[in-house]
Input
Amino acid sequence: MLSIKDLAVDFQTRKGVVHAVRNVNLHVDKGETLGIVGESGSGKSVTSYALMRILDAGGTITAGDIVYSGIDLRHSSARDMRNIRGREISMIFQNPRAALNPIRKVGHQLEDVLKTHSQATRYDARAKAISMLEAVQIRNAEERYHAYPFELSGGMCQRIVIAIALACNPQLLIADEPTTGLDITTQKTVMDLIQSLSQERQMSSILITHDLGLAAQYCDRIVVMKDGELVETGKPKSLFNNAQHAYTRKLIAATPRKNASIRDLLPVEEQQPLPERSQSGETLLRVNNLVKTYAGKNGPVHAVKGISFDLKQGKSLALVGESGCGKSTTSSMITRLLDCSSGEIIFNGQDIGKIKLRDFAQHEMRKDIQMVFQDATDSLNPRHSAFQSILEPIKHLTDLRSAKRQDRVYELADLVGLPHSLLTRFPHQLSGGQKARVGIARAIAVNPQLLILDEPTAALDVSIQAIVLNLLADLRAKLGMTYLFVSHDLHVVRLLCDDVIVMKDGEIVEMGPVEEVMDQPKSEYTQSLLDAAPSLSKIVE
Amino acid sequence: MSGRYKTISLRIAQAIPVLFGVVVVSFILTRALPGDPAVYFAGASATEESIAQVREALGLDKSLPEQFVIYLGDLLRGDLGQSISTGQAVTDDLARRLPASLELTLMALFISCSIAVPLGVMAATKPGSLRDHICRVIVTAGVSLPTFFTGILLIYIFYYLLGIAPSPLGRLDFIYIEPDTVTGFYLIDAALIGDWETWFGALKQLILPATTLALFTMAPIARMTRAAMLSALSSDFVRTARAAGLSSSKILYGYALHNAMLPVITTLGMVFSFTLGANVLVEKVFAWPGIGSYAIEALVASDYAAVQGFVLAMAILFVLLNLTIDIAYSLIDPRIGFEER
Output
């Protein structure tokens, strides 16, 4: 139905021409779901934008043919392309909330598409829009018709985007990272919805994703892309069990899965035995009946409803749960970036919850509790070089003389594996993995006892994630740190942590050793989280 | 909707302390200015005695707090005092001159927006292209030329050389009769009584000064429109709209421009306030009986009542302007809850 031959796309940038896609050949058959997997910069999105002809300014198709049902998409007129987009080929995007017009009612956005493709008239557009909302399983469709995107949850917004994409019964649906940034259970419902709708309508689809597990679960055939080129193609089962290309093998190895240890994620030649960890067995942190209540518009919002747990020195504890479960609020309170409403946070025998936020910044314990933030880019000052970023806590929290400070920064750079030549660079000149290293170096600069990691690898590609996770494991052993690891990714948690706490609606649902909780979950909620997580282990032997 | 009215009245109530501050500051500043109005108005051949007489007549012999209490009492009765240079009540002067300035400024902004916004949109659709550069040259030229120069240039071309513009002397040529004052805006008042001849006459007088001001104010509006459109056009929702096959005009005007309106309106508010205060040069060139030239004359003459009246009127105007902009925000963007603040 769709065939792409020798596609090449170039981007004109300030630094010259970038060949984003080269020699790409692929085809999609009727009713088939094709997966395109690869890491960021592999050209998988650009390929799909090229076939829709919605490349950003500066991008041009320089070679190749794109033929859809006998129509030459590369040379079609702009007018013909407009008729094809939305009616024949539709697209859904990542970050659904941004993908919708923020100041237009979702119902009207749906109507815009219906009217553009003459699928509805002024009189029946409303009814058709509402029935489309019902088709994507939105409850109270009549009411939701009048909602604005900011009033809806991320999963709800993605359903609207799907409704817009499917409104005119297209034959081919392109889903570009449709579930990135969504919760794991929401991801499952959204993916199941896409799957059932496309089967119902006998549509073909292309799923673009960086998540091999997701691709394995939902695709009939998968192509792997790297640096703008196709490296391998095949059925999920044969591809993942018998990968031919080194890059595919590396990707599969780096994907966290059930029976792999943290070192198994790295290429074989880089694997070294994990260093021994020292654990004194003393309780470092005790959280007692911790509560956080916000004043909301309609009465108080109970973000954290009285949780208690212990964390022993040298152990690693994971806080998992979906967005809104209170895991980030809890970690912010423990880091003392947020006041608690009631309860105790006993760190090294002292209730630090009683110390005022403003005073804690000057407190001697400030350097004992440090944090690595989720977004490596946004958490670095864009006008500070890597050197300055790492130096900052040393200046404020230690009494090192200025001559010694520089040595300390170099020492830290060595610890996290950051080449010294990169220290003069600014965040925008560093890659994602390098920025993550700067963030970690900054957090460990003052020798903290407790390190709080808030989804430190969520924004990284799998191969980089593997390296960062291993770095964290090494540092933990070398420096004797205790970790509190906040994450929604159960596979990652299993690799790095000893114990796990599952949270839901501000309460602890289940806690215990990682293997026990994940292999024999006691609560239904934990079970549903485990079921929803796409996993390579289901097909990789 | 009732919540909205409540918020509006609350906002007006909040403005009262601000206005009181303005009253205090303008009172003190006018007195702190060098120059003695009594000496000024007693004339060149005044004696000590006659100066003292004038001073007493103006109430300036009393202590400052006493003067202030009297001034406040007058204010509460709606009396802004007597202008000593025009001999009229300040309220009457303002009522006549403020609409003249507002009419000129609003007309100028109307012309400015109707040119600058399309220019900005056009420039944003193809950044770096020839039309982008042409837009930039036009608006930069407009803002670089001082208003008195453009004013005189326009008069020279359209009045002196071409003879299509009327003589640049005030709001209405003497052959027309002033319409009865309802709003003070000649265009509206003339339209209300259906006197289209006068309406047209007033419009002809208005066009040149308004164009002069418009040329000057185009730059910020066009630049902001271009920047806001650029970011709207590169946003994810525009990509979604393109992928759904919406027509380019729908994407450009229905989606992108609508989202780009907020920063443009903010800029418009700022441009409005500086234009209203700064159009004194245009008023002078076109002999426009506006509030800017009134304020300057009053200031030169140390005409306390007139200066204070002017400052207070402007303060009230800005309070209302900000309120209008906030309401406009909440109408354009549903995310901004007007009721809650």
